[in-house]
From TrEMBL:
It comes from Streptomyces mooreae. The gene is cpfC. HAMAP family: Ferrochelatase (MF_00323). InterPro entries: Ferrochelatase, Ferrochelatase_C, Ferrochelatase_N. It is an enzyme of class 4 (lyase). The keyword DNA-binding does not apply. Keywords: Cytoplasm, Heme biosynthesis, Iron, Lyase, Metal-binding, Porphyrin biosynthesis. Belongs to the ferrochelatase family. The lineage of its organism: Bacteria, Bacillati, Actinomycetota, Actinomycetes, Kitasatosporales. This is Coproporphyrin III ferrochelatase. It catalyses: Fe-coproporphyrin III + 2 H(+) = coproporphyrin III + Fe(2+). Its EC number is 4.99.1.9. Pathway: Porphyrin-containing compound metabolism; protoheme biosynthesis. It is found in: Cytoplasm. CDD domains: Ferrochelatase_C, Ferrochelatase_N. The keyword Signal does not apply.
Length: 384
């Protein structure tokens, strides 16, 4: 087998995602899964679920994951990479434990995992590793021998993730009226998280204090700078930009990352900015946070202000992203075989670590998390 297409020691790839409801009857049970252990009343969940009910109770995320699955399988086949691709979710069918069980029954023992979250944070990385640990322990409790799972590195700055976003911003600028295009500002958006969680994101060396944001903010700023620089190089126009946030869901008294996109649009309008491109760089696909918080809520705010806006596309199932996943997989496989592979990354931060170190994106309460330096296997359930 050619070295450049050798996935060994891996015998399968698992696409690990958040999941979402696929009909009105699924919405509240889905939200119960998302908020399990927080004691949120069912009536409150029905109120939160109104975003989903506006779209028929269907989240776009599952359909988008199916499209990505197809894109990955197509890319693998076209490049002679004979590796099956499976899909499992944290909060809705197909559930992670069920998918891993199927993979074990299919004979897979070394599984590479791609999470549909590109950046470092507890909810975007460590929590998925906790989900993997829980699923492996469940399989062992059933009498199955758990496979080894390795999570692929963060890909926020991989060219195959960044270039489609650059093209999305360029297309959005071109879609604005010509008279406002040159003065348009770029609002790079991502999911707001509590400042305490942001400060402890990434490795212990990345951790910050007082809302500086740790690796989570630093990684988004690095990607935003790369995109803005590329847009300037290709258009000859230096569009001012800022990293802003959306989709806050916490209690009002808990500090979260700011400014919110709607507040930012009001501020930009008051400052006389003629137009804004909203670029959701924190999201892999156009799921509910993008469709509601940007396409519905923020767009309505812009219309109220009389501020022209355009929303650029997420990466989704772009063939370049599928190729990036193949690159990440083969890169990690080569490293596991003792090679020193080329590691593609744009910006100032470089390629991320393969193995999450101890203290990386720590849990709110200590829980075992697979695929990290602190993982000892499902037989050892001591807190990690």
């Amino acid at each position: 087998m050619p070295e450049q297409c050798d996935p060994r020691p891996y015998d399968a790839l698992l696409l690990l995602s958040f999941g979402g409801p696929e009909g009105p009857d699924d919405v509240v049970p889905f939200l119960e899964n998302v908020t399990r252990g927080r004691g949120i009343p069912r009536e409150r969940l029905k109120e939160v679920g109104q975003h989903y009910f506006l779209f028929g109770g269907v989240s776009p995320i599952n359909a988008q994951n199916r499209e990505l699955l197809d894109a990955l399988r197509k890319d693998f086949a076209e490049h002679g990479l004979d590796l099956p691709v499976y899909w499992g979710n944290r909060n809705w069918a197909p559930y992670l434990t069920d998918t891993l069980r199927t993979m074990v029954h299919d004979g897979h023992r070394r599984i590479a995992v791609l999470a549909t979250s590109a950046y470092a944070s507890y909810s975007g990385c460590r929590q998925y590793r906790e989900n993997l640990a829980d699923a492996l322990a469940a399989l062992q409790a059933e009498g199955l021998e758990p496979p080894r799972v390795d999570k692929l590195r963060h890909y926020f700055n991989h060219p195959g993730f960044v270039r489609p976003m650059v093209d999305g911003v360029l297309a959005s600028l071109a879609a604005l009226p010509q008279e406002v295009r040159g003065g348009a500002h770029l609002a790079f958006t991502t999911h707001s998280i509590p400042t305490a969680a942001a400060d402890t994101s990434g490795t212990p060396a990345d951790h910050t204090q007082d809302g500086a944001g740790g690796a989570y903010v630093a990684q988004h700023l690095d990607v935003a700078q790369v995109i803005a620089d590329t847009v300037r190089a290709e258009t000859g126009v230096d569009h001012p930009w800022r990293l802003v946030y959306q989709s806050r869901s916490g209690a009002p008294h808990i500090p979260w990352l700011e400014p919110d996109i709607c507040d930012h649009l009001e501020e930009r309008h008051a400052a006389g900015v003629p137009a804004v491109v909203m670029a959701p760089i924190g999201f892999v696909s156009d799921h509910m946070e993008v469709k509601y918080d940007l396409d519905t809520e923020a767009t309505a705010k812009a219309a109220e202000l009389g501020l022209p806006v355009a929303r650029s596309a997420t990466v989704g199932a772009d063939p370049r992203f599928a190729a990036a996943v193949r690159d990440l997989l083969l890169e990690r496989a080569a490293a596991e075989r003792g090679r020193t592979p080329e590691r593609c990354a744009l910006g100032a931060l470089g390629a991320g670590h393969d193995l999450c170190p101890v203290g990386c994106c720590p849990a709110r309460a200590p829980r075992p998390a697979a695929a990290g330096a602190d993982w000892r296997g499902p037989a050892d359930r001591a807190p990690a």
